[in-house]
Amino acid sequence: MARQSAKSAKTTSNLIHSLGLSHHLITLNFLIISFGKKSARSSPKVKVTDTNFDGVEVRVFEGAPRPDEPLRRSVVFIHGGGWALASAKISYYDQLCTAMAEELNAVIVSIEYRLVPQVYFPEQIHDVIRATKYFLQPEVLDKYKVDPGRVGISGDSAGGNLAAALGQQFTYVASLKNKLKLQALIYPVLQALDFNTPSYQQSMNAPILPRHVMVRYWVDYFKGNYEFVEAMIVNNHTSLDVERAAALRARLDWTSLLPSSIKKNYKPVMQTTGDARIITELPQLLDAAASPLIAEQEVLQALPKTYILTCEHDVLRDDGIMYAKRLESAGVNVTLDHFEDGFHGCMIFTSWPTNFSVGIRTRNSYIKWLDQNL
Predict the structure, then answer these.
(1) In what order do the strands lie in the sheet with 107-112?
(2) DSSP assignments along 232-284, one per residue
(3) DSSP annotation string for 270-281
């Protein structure tokens, strides 16, 4: 039912866009939010408020403080949606953050960052940095009774990408270094250089997030041209004759970063010659702020304890597994939590009529790790 509704919404948005009435992403997001938006409603166990941190909208979920713990722990959460869709205020994310606040007795700050096509890369990153820096001010942490030594960042899908980028950006600023106790990334998007990893090949036509849709999200994020999509799908943008990509390939060489059980019999797709215009017009494709997986080793070494959740039936599976391997090699304490029956987006499907078993299990596993490590 959920898949059929999403398909109908997408068809409607494409029709409106073709008629020149609106950008298709604006229309699609309007439909998503119209059917799923939830007001900031508190309960006896969780106080929910909408406010803004340094001009960035946030929804704050405050779990009931424990008598023996005057200061609470906290998670800054960043929702997914291809940098273009969804909201901290739709029911799926509202329910997830409410559950986190209640079960962890924590303060959850869910960021309502601006979306494509209102803004493009790197503005989404700037929004989450501004909101998080504001929250980490001593007087703000004191207002919410948060322990400054127990703050983590987290996000799912594109939100996982932004959380990973946020964590790396904080390593460059002395005053922000070591401010985060952990990062928890849920089926994160981490690179745009290789769209033929084993998971991209295995799940290229999987529901929720087929490969061509993920590539279009990247093009939208960079305000690029859709004519590049087919060339990018076969890795023409990082072909051997693209010198600027050469030094970065080793940082996501899945033939060495993935275990044999994941690689199976898949072969790398590396074109000898490609389309040089793509990187020329979209240099962001090679920017570590967009693709945290290609960050330098020195940056990775400074990152906090990390949790990465991956799903077998997901084009992004190998992004997460490779990032875990690179972080581990850099000396970071990493937990890789893989679900053989998982699919992209499954964690937010925990209530009727989309209350999937794997959604409940992934959510419980994620919250349990946070409870044990934050």
Answers:
(1) 46-53, 56-63, 107-112, 72-78, 146-156, 182-186, 305-313, 334-343
(2) HHTTGGG-TT-HHHHHHHGGG-HHHHS-HHHHTT------SS--HHHHHH-GG
(3) --SS--HHHHHH
pLDDT tens-digit readout, 240-274? 999 889 889 889 999 999 999 999 999 999 999 99
Instruction: Look at strands 107-112 and 56-63 and give their pairing.
Output: antiparallel
Q: Could you tell me if 202 and 266 are in contact, meaning their C-beta atoms sit under 8 angstroms apart?
A: yes
Tokens of 226: 């859709």
Hey, what are 88's tokens? 């901290």
Beta strands in 144-206 (DSSP E): 146-156, 182-186
β-bridge mates for residue 57, sequence order: 52, 112
Write phi, then psi, for 80 (nearest 5 degrees): -90, -170
Q: What is the pTM of this model?
A: 0.92
Which residues in 54-192 belong to E strands, given as ranges? 56-63, 72-78, 107-112, 146-156, 182-186
My answer on whether omega of the bond before 122 falls inside 30° of 0, hence cis, is: yes
- Listing DSSP states for 6-33 in one string gives HHHHHHHHHHHHHTTSS-HHHHHHHHHH
Residue 326 clears pLDDT 50, i.e. is over it:
yes
Give phi and psi for 104, each to the nearest 5: -100, -5
What sign results for the dihedral spanned by CA atoms 165, 311, 114, 224? positive
Angle between helices 24-36 and 2-18 (to 10 degrees): 140
Whether 124 contacts 157, CB under 8 Å: no
Query: Are 84 and 29 within 8 A, CB to CB?
Result: yes
Active site residues: 157, 314, 344
* Structure tokens given for 330: 């850099």
Contacts for 3 with CB less than 8 Å, ≥ 6 apart: 207, 208
Query: Is the predicted pLDDT of residue 18 greater than 60, yes or no?
Result: no
**Cα-flanking dihedrals φ and ψ of residue 71, to 5°?**
-110, 135
d(CA 115, CA 251): 29
- Total residue length of the chain: 374
Task: List pLDDT tens digits, range 124-138.
Answer: 999 999 999 999 999
Phi-psi region of 164 (alpha: psi -120 to 50; beta: other; left: phi over 0): alpha
Tell me the pLDDT tens digit for each residue of 90-105: 999 999 999 999 999 9
HEC profile for 288-301? CCCCHHHCCHHHHH
